Amino acid sequence: MPKLFFKMFRRRLARADLGQEKGLENPIGQNNCFLNVVIQGLWHLVAFRKNFEACSYHSHPQDPYSSCIFCALKLIFEQYSSADRDVLPPTALRQALSDLFAAQDRFQLGELDDAAEALEAVLGSIHDAVRLPGPAGAVDDPDACQPACFIHRIFGINIVEQLRCTACGDDSEPTTLGMLMTYCYTADLVRSAASHPRGRDFDFLLGDIARDDTRPCSSANCQNQCIVRRFLLDLPQVFTVGLVWATAEPTREEIVPVLTLVSEQIDLSYIFDIPAECQSRSRYRLRGMVCYYGKHYDAYFYDDAKRVWWVFDDATVHQVRPLPRSAIQQQFHTLTMLRACPSSALVLVTNQQRGGVVVLTLRCDV
Fold this sequence. Notes:
Layout: H1 2-18, E1 23-24, H2 33-44, H3 46-54, H4 69-82, E2 87-88, H5 91-100, H6 115-130, H7 150-155, E3 157-165, E4 175-179, E5 182-185, H8 186-194, H9 202-211, E6 214-216, E7 225-232, E8 238-245, H10 252-261, E9 265-267, E10 283-292, E11 297-303, E12 308-313, E13 316-320, H11 324-334, E14 344-351, E15 357-364
Parallel strand pairs: 1-2, 5-8, 8-15
Antiparallel strand pairs: 3-4, 3-7, 6-7, 9-10, 10-11, 10-14, 11-12, 12-13, 14-15
Helix pairs in contact: 2-6, 4-5, 8-9, 10-11
């Protein structure tokens, strides 16, 4: 009897310590893990969660009606907020994604897919659902978003690219680009770090890689290579960087050097030319990571209130106090069931002044 009592007591303490944190179901054969980490990531992005829950307008897809990503995620968030269960089903969003992308044969039920691509698909679908229609008679542009919806206010990376020739002085016409995520090859990151023996921070290396991007001058009589200047129009609340491996099965020797380069803080002014009024709020802090290894995803997210990291491995939720990089290296070396050494990962870093977040996605380009 005493043993049973203490066992129940420990369970109650564990539940109380978890607070509102919940796991997500992933029965054998369903392969929900890639979507579970996306759900956990969006829930733990406070800026997204508050805007999403406060959004009162959205349009439904006409065919099939069951493919409404907005409704599916809203249902899961309501369960996360109010359900007594410790483990929730991601079924609504899994089904909606499968229906919406059936023609493209992506995100189908039972299939393991890419978490970064799933995140972009979910955000893109919500953008389509909440963006306001253009003026009457105007040609509808599905990518246009004026005024910006909350997806673009939070995740939007809007830049202007301009080529400048250092030989003839010619400047190209500026090109405006908009995206929700940006990518970088891990081989380029390691190569840049090796060229700076004293070591450089993660943001400097990303900027160094960007500065190495050169393109031919468009002037007829000039054979020089132009530098590419990238002007960030405004600071996103969530900045997403994808680190891409060239192989689906990177070795420990390939993974660990990349993890050691991920800084706890980054400054976007090292990566882009940013407006002067944004200089004082361009620093971001690490807030989370989604990892892929051994055909399985799990996630780490920081809890500001408790000053601990939560680990979400489908239905399993627990705390870990080291930073994700340290925890990942430790789990890799000890070969625990966390399988947290990424050939794919998602890292979140908050803006210190605005509560924004950097999301770093590490995946395989195969």
